[in-house]
Amino acid sequence: MGIFSRDFPFPSGGPSATLKDDNDVTFDPLAVAAVLSNPRADLSAARLYLQLDRKNYRWPHTMMIGGTLPPMNTLVAHLSMNVTSIHPAITMCGIDIKLIPVRSDMIFKEFPINQSNYRLNDLVEFRSSQIAGNDFMVINMDDLDDKARRKHKLGMGSWPGRIALQVIGFANGLLLLTGVAFSALTADVWAGTLFFFYALHWVASTFITFSEMIRTNVKGSIVPDQNLRYAVYQRPEGGTVIFKGKKETLERWARETMEFNKKTRVIFFHWFWMISGTMAAVSSVACMVNMRGYMQLGFLAVLVYSSVAEIAATQISRRLQAASRGEFSHQLVDNNITRTKGIIRGTIENYPKCRLKGLNWIALELLPNWPLYQEMQQMLARINELQEEDEKNGGVDMEVEVDKAITQFLAETTKPGTDPAKILLANRISDETRAAWAAASGGEVDEKSKAPIKLATANV
């Protein structure tokens, strides 16, 4: 037994354990939450680079939860891209642009829409009625031109809004610098490292705010053409958006492309922003768990402020954009029992800038290629000509002329031997046309003038 005692010494007492008394508060999930993907953070980074309304106000990028992922992803794209690749900054900004498929009487099959262009984006995403498939939103795109912009005030006006956006960005930086100061006073190296890199990233974002990082150009020459053209977007969720404008306006819009500004100063700011953002993302994970509890709470407060500030900045920029750009001429034609009713109302009832004059529904495959619909288009074209003549020179007895156009339409579409279903449809279209003209002229439909056959119930 003595031999074993010499070779294998054992403690004289029994095993004991003590718990460490630690009063620190840890929020480990925050370390991950700070770098979680956030669509609003991605969009904010894109707006920071694009500065769509830089002539009127500056977008202050705030580092909300996930706000450091865009620079880190962009840096990875730089390090892994091919020579012929698109510049990663352009790819990052692509999140602000959505391409919508359209049917048009031009060669273009897609049109870009900036989500930062709040007014246009809101019109495209209009709130539909209960009969969404028969809703039509008509937008006159000639208001896109700088010459067509109207200066007026909406809500908070210009300077208060601009100052508010600058205060939002300044407050974010002040919070981060305060975190650096407190970390130094409390000798918290981990917190100091975290707040330092976030403060650096804020400095880089501030430089970018006042720099032209991305330029918007139009490829190719645009031949002046005042002829009206249309592009029709049928929304997946229901409803149809119709873009109307001069050919040169729609062509310029369709050909817009983004280019990265390759000036030395801009390139430096770009890399400064990417590297500082990447270091901030890394420090979020590496430093968070090791920070003191109250410093973690302080960092949480910064993240909460940044998220709320981004929402406030969005609302302020909406008002500023509306005040600086003016509104797009638009008109919503909704609550239509049938599709033909919406088409007829949009062609006759709408005010001139949004009137669907000359839109060939059949050629765009938005109506069946039936002789009846061809006659309907001819009737509507005739009524539009009469409207323009009366609005320009006056002296046109519109009530009589519209009745003649409808009578001619019925004569061509209800000939003996015509399918009874087509006759029902023709009479329904004539009634819808009379109702649309009555609404356009501020009158009421004469019940005696309506076709004797009741409306068909088909939703066509």
Largest sheet: 5 strands, mixed
What proportion of the residues form beta strands (DSSP E)?
5-15%
The ordered H/E elements are HHHHHEEEHEHHEEEHEHHEHHHH
- Content-based structural category: alpha+beta
What is the CA–CA distance across the termini? 103 Å
The domain count comes to 2
Helix fraction? 40-55%
Query: Strands of the largest sheet, in order across it?
Result: 2-6-7-4-9
How big is the Rg?
32 Å
List low-confidence stretches. Answer: 150-156, 445-458
Counted by DSSP, the helix tally is 15
* Count of DSSP strands: 9
Mean pLDDT: 85
**Can you tell me the overall shape?**
elongated
Transmembrane segments: 163-183, 189-210, 268-291
Keywords: Membrane, Transmembrane, Transmembrane helix
Descriptive report:
The structure is a single chain. By secondary structure, the chain is of the alpha+beta class. The chain has 2 domains: 28-325, no CATH class; 336-449, no CATH class. The protein is 51% helix and 10% strand. The strands form 3 sheets. It has a 5-stranded mixed β-sheet with strand order 2-6-7-4-9. A hairpin with a 5-residue loop joins strand 6 (228-234) and strand 7 (240-246). The longest helix is centred in the C-terminal third of the chain and has 33 residues, at 293-325. It is elongated and about 115 Å long.
